[in-house]
Amino acid sequence: MEFSKAERNRCKIKLALQGASGSGKTYSALLIAFGLTGDWSKIAVLDSENGSAHLYSHLGGYYVLNMASPFSPEKYVEAIKTGVEKGFQCLIIDSLSAEWNGSGGILDVHSNIPGNSFTAWAKVTPRHNAFIQSILQSDIHVIATMRSKTEYLMQEKNGKQVPEKVGLKAVQREDTEYEFTVVMELNQRHQATISKDRTGLFVNRPELILSAEIGKEIASWCSSVSVTSSCSREIPPPKEQTFEDLINACETVDALAVLYNDYPEQQAMHRDVFVRRKNQISSMILNLV
């Protein structure tokens, strides 16, 4: 066994864009991808959204893989593997939601397995986990879009109350945002708010209009000077009986995400505890508003 110095220039960003239909997820993902790579020919889109990626072909010569149902996790895993082998530097998965609730996706397969729901989940969860791991372990930048469940809220505009479409919960497994380095939420004005950021690039920044410049910032962070690591000794994981206490001690969703990502071996065993604590934190924030 050999430890190596932690270097950000080995990082490949895993970024999620979520929003309601029409919020600009695909377009924004393409601009960020160009900022990350500086070369349209190094960008590929896995398009499960009925060819929406072709709508922006005027931007540059990126590549598209049209994906049709069934949207099985294995099909996505194979597409990601092929994208890496072809030498693309950034892969856009548009969208991650199809693997979850599309035809032939996880929920569809789960509902068609005979027997009780628990047994069915035991069969499909490893397939979904393998898909997520293929994203995280790929040596390539990945931008994943997720559709949000939509609701209309009354907003004041020019002195009048008008209905505005807003995106709520992302259409994917409940804890999916834990897996990404950065999570951005787009509204109908194509403005992005940052709901998770482990880079520190977007701290205290107002709503953003996403552009290639954002991609350049992230690329610079990924390739910045190496940082000193405490890898000179192995940090022992917390004991199993105290890990739940560590989860419950987290005061913010970001802190919870850091703990989740730092101890992958604890994720499956304590998934329900992570989700429960996240919901508690979200409820506390809502009560303060």
Detail the topology: elements first, then pairings.
Blueprint: E1 14-19, H1 25-37, E2 43-47, E3 63-66, H2 73-85, E4 90-94, H3 97-101, H4 106-111, H5 117-137, E5 141-157, E6 160-170, E7 182-186, E8 191-197, E9 208-209, H6 212-222, H7 240-249, H8 253-262, H9 271-288
Parallel strand pairs: 1-5, 1-7, 2-3, 2-4, 4-5
Antiparallel strand pairs: 5-6, 7-8, 8-9
Helix pairs in contact: 1-6, 2-5
Report the count of strand segments.
Answer: 9
Provide the CATH top-level class of the largest domain: Alpha Beta
Shape: globular
Q: Judging by the overall fold, what is the CATH architecture of the largest domain?
A: 3-Layer(aba) Sandwich
Descriptive notes:
This protein is an alpha/beta fold and 289 residues long. The chain has two domains: 8-222, P-loop containing nucleotide triphosphate hydrolases (Rossmann fold); 240-288, no CATH class. It has nine helices and nine strands. Strands 1, 2, 3, 4, 5, 6, 7, 8 and 9 form a nine-stranded mixed sheet that branches. Helix 1 packs across helix 6 and helix 2 (73-85) packs parallel to helix 5 (117-137).
